[in-house]
Amino acid sequence: MTSATHSTLFPGTPGVSQIMAPPADADAVLDGLDPEQREVATALHGPVCVLAGAGTGKTRAITHRIAYGVRAGILQPASVLAVTFTNRAAGEMRGRLRQLGAGGVQARTFHSAALRQLQFFWPKVVGGDLPRLLDRKVQLVADAGARCRIRLDRNELRDVTSEIEWAKVTQTVPADYPAAVAKAQRDAPRDPAEIGQIYAMYEQLKRDRGTIDFEDVLLLTVGILQDRHDIAERIRSQYQHFVVDEYQDVSPLQQRLLDLWLGDRDSLCVVGDASQTIYSFTGATPDHLLNFRTRHPGATVVKLVRDYRSTPQVVHLANGLLAQARGRAAEHRLELVSQRDPGPPPVFTEYGDEPAEAEGTARRIRDLIAAGVPAGEIAVLYRINAQSEVYEQALADAGVPYQLRGAERFFERAEVREAGVALRGAARAGGNDSLLDDAEDLPAQVRAVLSTKGWTTEPPTGSGAVRDRWESLAALVRLAEDFARARPGAGLGDLVAELDERAAAQHAPTVQGVTLASLHSAKGLEWDAVFLVGLSEGTMPITYAKTEEQIEEERRLLYVGVTRARLHLSLSWSLSRSPGGRPSRRPSRFLSGLRPGSAAPGGRAAAAGGGIERSAGGPAGTASARRGRRGPARCRVCGATLTDAGEMKLMRCEDCPSDMDEALYERLVDWRSEQARRLGQPAWCVFTDKTLMAIAEAAPSHDGELARIPGVGVRKLGRHGADVLAICAGQEPGGGAGED
Predict the structure, then answer these.
(1) Whole-angstrom Cα distance, residue 374 to residue 101?
(2) Structural contact between residues 150 and 202, judged by C-beta atoms closer than 8 angstroms
(3) Is residue 336 a contact partner of residue 307, using CB atoms and an 8 Å limit?
């Protein structure tokens, strides 16, 4: 936190020339944007809503929008506040804006922006210093439970703390908590009346001890802006233009703060995707995004659907997953269109038990690494953190390095802090440090310094704390190597400054190991290869997801997991928990109609979403297994995996170019109408439109070619084959349908 007495939050608004070098042609900022991204970048007036699918370049679009406005002289940098949800995202946005010549723009999280305002105005409104900000609530919640004579075990303590956070962001006071839980259909971890009692005592203890929590930062800022119109107007005169990223994750409290920042103005741009709403348990709701056009009838709405991240095969599976979704968010889903070259089909694998699944996953990861995929570009994603242990063990046994995401922050690790002190000392000593005598360049200097802290050229064997420490130091070595390549001639002092900036933004370097992470913590990230594991009923969707809304959020969570993959995607499940256990588990309902051999919920034919394998530990030799080994249906134009029954008949994607003989198709349609009349059947009973289109595209010349077209079975070949082949040859059909 910065000191309120020295805050420069509200200086006089500088001119553009004070913030950056003389502006280049503003239109240069638009170079390289696709048509939709360009539309976002140039929509600088009035409310703007950007509906951006996964991998569609939303950060690129909104940063170029801000930079275009600044360089065109329409926006003053200091008058823009860009808000996102993580320090890392805010740091990335600031970096991009600096590169684009808009370095004076503020990019912060809701909490960071509110905290600066609270620190600045607290002495003027309340007097004295701002109360101390709690780092963690858990101990205070435990004290509150003890005061109420309610014993909470470790898991209950964590869950009750989450309930208090949810209540505060939904602006629910302790007395109203039980009713709010019932209305929201939440599964409270204890009697709601007891939680309400603990919540009230928690608030009392905070007041007694002169502390506030992170939710209070927003609540107090909202309170000040509501009560003090002069302060609200001062903030509005400072910030004239707002951009909100990940708008589907806004809570009611954050929306209230945003409304107060805006006042009666409409200079607002929001970016989001309702299909990626996965944090409703924290109070996030997509309603603000979905209702944006109702609240702002004149809003400009732009949809970004060109997916630059994932291959057509991955995108096709993601689209198929959402095609089965229900509810309001599903009604606004975006149909992604991959812009990448075709890649391998997704692989579905069934295992006999969880250890076999973990071992099989580790083997496949080892094969990918051997084939040239960096370990840091591979992720194993699971529904709950408790699933990680078996994968940690399997990867360690296979000799594959890994890192756990969602654990202690990188720059808060003891070894990273110690390394920073050592590097800072070496930078100050310069040429007087004998340790650096033989180091010829910056990476060599860093390796020499970190060798005193436990770094070695070869990693230690096994897993655990020793390996974790080595991985942290190795990440700093790689960061130094990348930094030296990007800035030739940079010294240790420059690297230390870079580390300080990254630490402030929590922008950690990538550890070169396979990432193990929950699906929730994987949001906003991407890898070349993603393994989605444990996809069985009871885990995905999770067993406590009961209502339709909860089930649909689980589907969206899986969708987020699928769209993290750029190239390789593997989906797996196991039939039992332990070796020798009863194989009673079923694959996730969300995979129905997507994995080979399965039927969609609506009863349509099984879709071939990719290859399917069965491990040695699972049932083998079954009919479904034999069917799976045929491989997926592929588009004959672009090579994409086909999952839609109509597209599989055409053997191409619906939107891929067609080489159909239009005249032949018309003759086939006329012939089909006559056959249907003679048989007294609907026309589609003879052949469907898609089958006729496929015939007109293939123009078969003999029975074998006609039989290979989906929709032409043995029965229809015998009944109509001679007529169809005659028409394809430009001849008159020979007399119509025969008898069965």
Answers:
(1) 33
(2) no
(3) yes
Inter-residue contact 391 to 382 (CB < 8 Å): yes
pLDDT (tens digit per residue) in 435-450: 776 777 888 889 888 8
Asked whether the bond before 541 is cis by omega within 30 degrees of 0, the reply is yes
How far out from the chain centre does Cα 675 lie?
52
In angstroms and rounded to an integer, the radius of gyration of the C-alpha atoms of the chain is 30
Are 558 and 276 a contacting pair, CB within 8 Å? Answer: no
Q: Which two tokens stand for residue 511?
A: 């550890």
For residue 306, the cross-strand partners are: 337
pTM: 0.65
Calculate the alpha carbon distances from 307 to 298, 318, 560, 564 in Å.
28, 11, 14, 12
Q: Which two tokens stand for residue 342?
A: 């075709």
Any residues with CB less than 8 A from the CB of 350 and at least 6 apart, and which? Answer: 572, 573, 574, 575, 587, 612, 613, 614, 615, 618, 619
Q: Dihedral of the CA atoms 133, 137, 143, 149 (nearest 10)?
A: 140
Residue 674: how many other CB atoms lie within 10 Å: 15
Tokens of 371: 């084939």
Q: Cβ contacts of residue 389 below 8 Å, gap of 6+?
A: none
**Nearest-angstrom CA–CA distance, 446 and 330:** 51
Residue 630: band (very low, low, confident or very high) from pLDDT cuts 50, 70, 90: very low
What burial class does residue 297 get, using C-beta atoms within 10 Å of its C-beta: 0-12 exposed, 13-18 middle, 19+ buried?
exposed
8 Å CB contact between 7 and 119: yes
